[in-house]
Write a structure and sequence with these properties.
Helix content is 62%, strand content 0%. By secondary structure, the protein is an all-alpha fold. It contains four helices and no strands. The longest helix has 32 residues.
């Protein structure tokens, strides 16, 4: 009787393996029969505009101080990123607060120094 039970156990094991292999082949066939995924359309690059402007030395020092504060927190930023962050904050202000902030900005003569 031990021989029959061992034979039955082996047959069950083989049947289980065959079923597992059949399932894996069915999954592979399903993947091969399905259409390939469609890649997302390419995102067009953002247009970057180069510009120059005049600002007082104190404002340049302020930009450097803000860059250093970011570096102290292990975040490296360049001048353009500091200015763009400031623009985003100004754009979020209500009109009265924006005008108040603009009143604190020193007016400078535009153009290059001779």
């Amino acid at each position: 009787m031990a021989k029959n039970s061992l034979k039955d156990a082996l047959n069950r094991s083989i049947d289980s393996e065959r079923a597992s292999v059949d399932r894996r082949f069915a999954q592979a066939e399903a993947l091969l029969d399905s259409p390939p995924p469609v890649p997302p359309p390419p995102v067009p690059p953002v247009k970057v505009i180069r510009d120059s402007f005049t600002m007082p030395d104190a404002d340049y020092r302020l930009i450097a101080a803000l860059q250093q504060r970011c570096l102290n927190r292990a975040v490296a930023v360049n001048k353009a990123e500091v200015l763009r962050a400031g623009l985003k904050l100004l754009a979020a202000l209500p009109d009265d607060a924006l005008l108040s902030a603009m009143a604190q900005v020193e007016r400078v003569k535009t153009g290059r120094a001779k």
